[in-house]
Amino acid sequence: MAKVLIYKLENDGSQKVICTCVLENNSVKCDGDSGLVANLNSEGIINYAAETPEKVFPKDGKIFLENLSQNFNSGYFNATDIIEE
Question: Where do the domains of the chain lie?
Answer without folding.
Answer: 2-84
